[in-house]
Design brief:
Number of domains of chain A: 2
Radius of gyration of chain A: 21 Å
Largest interface: A-B, 61 and 61 residues
Structural class of chain A: mainly alpha
Distance between the termini of chain A: 72 Å
Number of helices of chain A: 11
CATH superfamily of the largest domain in chain A: Tetracycline Repressor, domain 2
Strand content of chain A: under 5%
Number of strands of chain A: 0
Helix content of chain A: 55-70%
Oligomer: homodimer
DNA sequence: GATTGACTCGTACGGCGTACCATGCGACTG
DNA sequence: CAGTCGCATGGTACGCCGTACGAGTCAATC
């Protein structure tokens, strides 16, 4: 007989996976090295054999959330717009599944999964005939749009506790911000639809030989 | 004779201004309540009379960076596109002057300065004839674009120390990410130009009755 | 002179990231 | 078989953090 089912050995992968779980459950502030070690059934300092420091854990957790498996059916379709939309919507969805990831984006290095998504995007646009001079701009514009949309959305998601608060605050300020109030900009928004529609507008602007 | 030039009294405004200075000088991590109090020549706990907690300081510091004084010449020009571009470029510039502000954006409440910028944007677009059904999408798209662009840029700015590092890492990965490498996506970019150009593309897509 | 309210701050507590160092263990060496 | 060496684990301790608590100062008011 062994010990009553001891934990599997530590590993970078297990640490990162558990960190993601923990952040999902307790939020970013709840992710501390001590709690992480607890969840792993190990001592705190053991983590540091596999990981440089806490920043490292953040970097790895962020990147691990951003894997991309490509479009569903056979690749290499002619529909470049569909490919772009699919990848970017998946990007956003992956991050919204782990809302803390949005607040991790600033100041973090580009992990391999981000890079390979950018590589894919470059490829699609390049084959679609976007002029070389516009390519970088196109890539950055799309990236920026997705990041901004995701961060905004995650932001509002998180302040769910404060939604009534927000609503009240806005009601009190409706004279000061009448247009916002009138357009109900911050309330009952169809986020997914708005994301898709805005992405469409952007792609309209970016389309080659328009 | 007085004390050798004692500090002026504490105030919310002075605290916020000093917090901004401190974050500029030492980065976000360098902004601690103790250091802030030191710089103000006061005891740590005195801050808490004027401020709820550290989160409050963050919120106030972020919003204080985002004041907008409007376009240079007389307002109410017919050139709605120019007005939009001016405000958004100023927005981005304001944040880049304080790169830490970008990493504060996620998870923060909308302060009065952000709201009044959104209000202004709504007004301009609405008067420019953007359809009501598209208005929210247009506002969010522009906001998202600006936020994403600012965060990306600030990110790269901050990793200036790691620029050589990044360059090296990319060189080592050029087989894995050939298109990125070829387009020099991450190197010697004209950020300001790319921002302006991408914004132009987006506005092209958003323009009313296209 | 007593009371009050606005304001300041010293002390202390619990929690954090992590440096340092001792330990356990399996594999390889002689 | 004894000795050595690497990988891997984790206990202790340090310095720093945010901030609760409550005592102190001081000017205005009655």
């Amino acid at each position: 007989m062994q010990e009553p089912r001891s934990e599997p050995p530590l590993s970078r992968e297990r640490i990162v996976a558990t960190a993601v779980e923990l952040a999902d459950a307790q939020g970013l502030d709840g992710l501390t090295m001590r709690r992480l070690a607890d969840r792993l059934g190990s001592g705190v300092m053991s983590l540091y054999w596999h990981v440089d420091n806490k920043e490292d854990v953040f970097d790895l957790a962020l990147d691990s959330v951003l894997e991309y498996r490509g479009p569903p059916q056979m690749a290499e379709s002619q529909d470049w717009r569909g490919q772009v939309v699919h990848m970017l919507e998946d990007w956003r969805a992956s991050m919204l599944r782990h809302p803390w990831s949005a607040s991790l984006l600033p100041r973090r290095a580009l992990g391999p999964n981000i890079l390979s998504r950018l590589e894919l995007l470059s490829n699609i646009l390049s084959r679609a005939g976007v002029a070389d001079a516009d390519l970088n701009v196109a890539i950055w514009s799309l990236w920026n749009y997705v990041m901004g949309a995701t961060i905004s959305r995650a932001n509002f998601d998180l302040s769910d506790d404060g939604r009534a608060d927000t609503q009240q605050r806005l009601a009190g300020l409706s004279e000061r911000y009448p247009t916002i109030e009138r357009s109900r900009l911050l309330l009952d928004n169809d986020w997914d639809g708005a994301f898709r529609k805005g992405l469409g507008f952007l792609l309209d602007g970016l389309s080659p030989r328009r």
